[in-house]
Amino acid sequence: MASSLCSFYNAVGVTLGEVKWGRRPMAKAGKEKAKPAKGKDDEVAITIVARNRRARFEYDLMETFEAGLVLTGTEVKSLRTGKASMEEAYASVDREEVWLYGCDIPEYLQANRMNHKPKRPRKLLLHKKEIDRLSTKASERGLTIVPLKIFFKKGMAKVDIAIAKGRKLYDKREALKKQDAKRDIDRAARGRD
After folding, report:
1. For residue 36, is it within any domain?
2. Which domain holds residue 113?
3. Each residue of 148-162: pLDDT tens digit?
4. Whole-prediction pTM
5. Pseudo-torsion of CA 97, 58, 186, 151, nearest 10°?
6. Rounded CA gap, 15 and 25, in Å?
7. CATH (domain of 57)
8. How many domains does one find in the chain?
9. What is the tens place of the pLDDT at every residue in 8-61?
């Protein structure tokens, strides 16, 4: 019996010591190498729920931050359906906490009487150093904190916020001219290919 087991293990390429001590057999030269397991960190799925398109037009963005959102269950379900509006949204620092105001997440239709208020202030989750940086920058004259987009990253609701400076009317016109020129150049380049 022992000789038949030894011949079996030799045919498979496993030594008796590996079997006896419960070790996994090592890869032999020339054989196929084991493929690394694909973890959750390899691909990060980001689902964008809402964008603040006016923010890039009306402000010069200086620095962006990614912050977590403190939400109730019905707010998360409503966001997963893709319904949110950031038209009048803004953020501010209040007592060493960052809050998001004016962001409209409509009530979840299948919820009962425990539904949320659509325009309630929502707390943003940031590191202490980021909050300090935001508060010092936002206190400077002419700078504000603007939300850019709400998205899901690894199943968690997040918001991109930026320290921004408001543009004057002539700056907006100049930005539109640059955008049109870039679009024309891209069209001409595509036409040649």
Report:
1. no
2. 46-167
3. 999 999 888 899 999
4. 0.64
5. 30
6. 8
7. 2.40.280.10
8. 1
9. 555 555 555 555 555 555 555 544 444 454 555 556 788 888 888 888 878 888
